[in-house]
């Protein structure tokens, strides 16, 4: 909904588009309370403030990039559960 705040110049248009977006996500199975909470939070932000770019965070986190496949979710879980072991290993830590 923050993207809608940035795109809509008029407050009336923003409210109308948020309603459409909320109804769409509710029809997809999202919880109405979560969507309404997001709508309320974004409504408090002015369009001017929403257009201000956020400073990028520098991250030293290790990134594991894989193509999406249902079986990769299991691999991701295994790597995350054993990350400390992989980082402690002198050979494996070069990749992590």
3D architecture notes:
This protein is mostly helical and 96 residues long. It has two domains: 2-50, no CATH class; 56-96, no CATH class. Helix content is 57%, strand content 0%. It has helices at 2-7, 11-27, 32-43, 47-50, 72-81, 83-88. The longest helix has 17 residues, at 11-27. It is elongated. It starts with a helix and ends in an 8-residue tail after the last helix.
Quick synopsis:
This protein is mainly α and 96 residues long. It has helices at 2-7, 11-27, 32-43, 47-50, 72-81, 83-88.
Topology:
Blueprint: H1 2-7, H2 11-27, H3 32-43, H4 47-50, H5 72-81, H6 83-88
SSE ordering: HHHHHH
Helix content: 55-70%
Total of helices: 6
Radius of gyration: 20 Å
Report the span from N to C terminus: 35 Å
How many DSSP-defined strands? 0
Mean pLDDT: 86
Overall geometry comes to elongated
